């Protein structure tokens, strides 16, 4: 039972990190599609969405760095438990 737990924990961590990163990418895709759609219709709103998109990209970069740090930290803790 302990062996199964040792394999499941890093796998669950990977799934959680993948879901977090995918959600951010999906949000960026949706906002960029809205920006392209609104550009010919309402340029002022399109400018606002471009600004939001830029800020979201910076946030997504910060989240990716933090997620990578957490993944490495937890993985090293999981491996230390086994040694």
From TrEMBL:
Pfam families the UniProt entry points to: ATP-synt_A
Q: Which residues cross the membrane?
A: 6-28, 35-55, 61-79
An example GO CC term for this entry is:
proton-transporting ATP synthase complex
Gene3D superfamilies (UniProt xref): ATP synthase, F0 complex, subunit A (1.20.120.220)
Provide the GO MF annotations for this entry: proton-transporting ATP synthase activity, rotational mechanism
| The organism's taxonomic lineage, starting at the top | Eukaryota, Metazoa, Chordata, Craniata, Vertebrata
Sorted keywords for this record are: ATP synthesis, CF(0), Hydrogen ion transport, Ion transport, Membrane, Transmembrane, Transmembrane helix, Transport
Q: Which organism is it from?
A: Amazona collaria
> How is the quaternary structure described?
Component of the ATP synthase complex composed at least of ATP5F1A/subunit alpha, ATP5F1B/subunit beta, ATP5MC1/subunit c (homooctomer), MT-ATP6/subunit a, MT-ATP8/subunit 8, ATP5ME/subunit e, ATP5MF/subunit f, ATP5MG/subunit g, ATP5MK/subunit k, ATP5MJ/subunit j, ATP5F1C/subunit gamma, ATP5F1D/subunit delta, ATP5F1E/subunit epsilon, ATP5PF/subunit F6, ATP5PB/subunit b, ATP5PD/subunit d, ATP5PO/subunit OSCP.
Name the UniProt record assigns to this protein: ATP synthase F(0) complex subunit a
Localisation: Membrane
């Amino acid at each position: 039972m302990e062996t199964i737990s040792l394999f499941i924990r890093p796998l669950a961590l990977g799934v959680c990190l993948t879901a977090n990163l995918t959600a951010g990418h999906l949000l960026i895709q949706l906002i960029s599609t809205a920006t392209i759609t609104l550009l010919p219709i309402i340029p002022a709103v399109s400018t606002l969405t471009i600004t939001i998109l830029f800020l979201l990209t910076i946030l997504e970069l910060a989240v990716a760095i933090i997620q990578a740090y957490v993944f490495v930290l937890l993985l090293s803790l999981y491996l230390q438990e086994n040694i």
